[in-house]
Write the structure tokens for this entry.
Amino acid sequence: MAEKGKNTNNTAAENENAKPEKKMTRYDLKMQRRREQELKEQKMKKISRTVGILVVIVCVCAVIWRVYDNYQEKHGPYISIDNHDIKKAEFDYYYYNSVNSFASTYGSYASVFGLDLSQPLDAQSYSDTMTWKDYFEQQAVEQMKMVYALTDEASENGFTYDAEEDYNAMVDSITANAESQDMSADAYCQAIFGSDATLENIKPYVLLGSTASAYYDSIEDATEITEDEISTYYDENKDSYDSVDYRICKIAADMPEDETEAETEAAAESGDDTAETAETMSEEEKEAAEAEKKAAEEAAMAEAKAKADDMLSKITDEDSFAEAYKDYAEDESADSLNANKKKSSISPSDVAEWLFDEARQAGDKTVIEYESGDAYYVVYFLDRYLEHAKTVDVRHILISPEEVADTTEDGEELSEEEKAQVETEAKEAAKAKAEEIYKEWQSGDATEDSFAVLAESYSEDTGSNTNGGLYEAVKDGDMVASFNDWIFDASRKAGDTNIVETDYGYHIIYFVGDNAEEWHVTIESALLSNKMNDYLSNLVADLKVADKKGNIAYLHETEAETETTSETMEATAETESETE
């Protein structure tokens, strides 16, 4: 009870001490709302400030990522070939190499392939599944695969090659071309090898490619082609290497000519009631006209066949063919004899097939219909053989006269007499230079090797001045007349030299000697090419190309096709299994 009273007294005391509650006026409410609004605005400013900082951070990160992405595109891996990461600049080097090689090979004929090099390559179709850009990217990838496969194997086998000289030669060539275009060397590089190309940047690719090429040459030089291989190849492909001699006479059918539209109209205008055009004829009339035309054509072919058979009956030997030819040939002045003809050069193909039949014997004769040509051929077989034409190896140094301008340095046009005089002086200067080089060789070691050195220093023949002026396995007729006549002179022997004039200038020639017969050289070359193609195919067969960023479209199209084919095969297998 005492406790309860104590509590009651305390509560009373507290109530007495408590202040009376203040009543809120309109002013107080207004001030309170203002304070709340200020607090709200301060809070929003703080939030806005925080968001602004975050936006700046995001923008900075985006810029950093863009810079990084650009750096990665230029310096990071664009694609990879096995364990080799390929940068964009390196890919571009090979890509534009492919484009430039195609352009230099075909030039203005590119349009024949449906390609306009002045237009975007990714907007032009190469095939149903590839654009021309895809095609050149594919060529670039294949080139890189071969280069890296060759250099990897070269490294494994301890092969070394100093490619600096090759790079320096390329620098000289680029510099000269750039100067002729009034460009810097690096600007010229960018124009032909891509926007990131400079002489310094492309150096590793040039060195690598030269090493790969040198290693390939070493493998090719070490690849042996045996006589047994050549003999076997010839036996299996005789039709491609043998030649035939034969006589032939064409008996053309006198086919009815179609009346031209102009002739039909002219006949109608002249009042010829029988003149009709295809548009005015009924179906029955058209069929009748076609039947009449066909009958006339058959009659013409039958007449030609009878004429050919009649000629054939008069042939007993080659002389009798020549006599009959005078009576049956449309142009008896044309020679009926065809000598040393390869199968691929004989037309029509039915004639070639008959001539190269294994059962063919000298004196065989026949009549062959050439339906699409509206004619018959009377053919007389003389001989089939393997031509034993020799080939030779030569070295030469070409000195060409300077080109003669049409005007003087002051811009005045030269007269014909003045031009002739300048041309004569240019030829004399070229001849004097050739004689000086010839004397230089004669006064030195006067060997084939020393001749090769001079050829690389002086010769203006770009086809041979990088390999000592050498041409191997030259066939009779390959060279211009006076050059050809000298090297194929019956008295020619190894080591002979001379200066020979041609339309190209003056040639200092060193006769190396006889090579193998033409057929032998051709087959040896074909076998070597086959072996080297097999070597390269095996070398790159297991190389993997990775394109994680999807830069090369054709690679992923190929993958999609492979997956589709695989899925189709699996579905087919399941269907067959269910059927069973």
